[in-house]
Design a protein that fits this description.
The chain is built from two helices and 14 strands; from the N terminus they run H-H-E-E-E-E-E-E-E-E-E-E-E-E-E-E. With about 210 residues, it is α+β, with helices and mostly antiparallel strands. The chain is elongated, with a radius of gyration of 19 Å. The termini are far apart.
Length: about 210
């Protein structure tokens, strides 16, 4: 399965590959052959990058799941920061069930997503009202193509593990953890959206 919003990229590279291949066989111009090879290579890359595999989500209101695939690069108080490399699935998922309170998109710069200053980059703030309190998922774009595709809007009801949107190419996702949850992941942990437990409810925050 491919992620929403990926069709224009794949169609473009497939079209270039086909036309360049046809042109090469008719003209034998070397640069047409090279163009066809590059088009095919980019098509394969986009098919890999825009993959969106189905996942078996084990729903549990007392467990908070990772909103993104990648590596935990920082934990700042109640915020967990997850960096996604090119090889990671870039579709993000709801860490807990709830209602979308707001979706706010902000323009920004080109700082690498793994840097702390990347908060200045293009980003999308998704605030989810859950039974444990508000949870904010922040999608932060990276240095390449700054494009965040949101699948949700204000008022939508989300089930834990449901798709929220995706970020194209290098990027990061930050998520806030409710006060009555204990963070169970640590820096440098590899996590998977809708699968990996990152926090667990306790009675201390009540």
């Amino acid at each position: 399965m491919l992620a929403k919003g990926s069709a224009p990229w794949i169609v473009a590279t497939v079209t270039i590959s086909i036309f360049a291949t046809i042109a090469y066989f008719y003209t034998r111009w070397p640069y047409m052959g090279i163009t066809a090879l590059f088009g095919t290579a980019f098509t394969i890359f986009f098919l890999f990058f825009f993959r969106d595999p189905e996942r078996n989500i084990g729903l549990c209101d007392s467990i908070m799941l990772a909103p993104a695939d990648g590596k935990v690069i920082d934990i700042r108080g109640r915020k967990i920061c997850i960096f996604m490399n090119f090889q990671n699935v870039h579709v993000n998922r709801a860490p807990l069930s709830g209602k979308i309170h707001s979706v706010v998109h902000k323009k920004g710069g080109y700082i690498p997503a793994f840097c702390k200053d990347s908060d200045r980059n293009e980003r999308n703030h998704i605030l989810i009202e859950t039974e444990h309190g508000p949870v904010e998922v922040i999608q932060i774009a990276g240095t390449v193509t700054r494009r965040i595709v949101s699948y949700v809007r204000e008022g939508d009801r989300m089930v834990q593990g449901e798709r929220l949107g995706m970020i194209r190419f290098g990027s990061r996702v930050d998520v806030t953890v409710p006060k009555n949850f204990e963070i169970v992941c640590k820096k440098r942990d590899k996590v998977f959206a809708g699968i990996t437990e990152i926090a667990r409810a306790n009675d201390k925050g009540k």
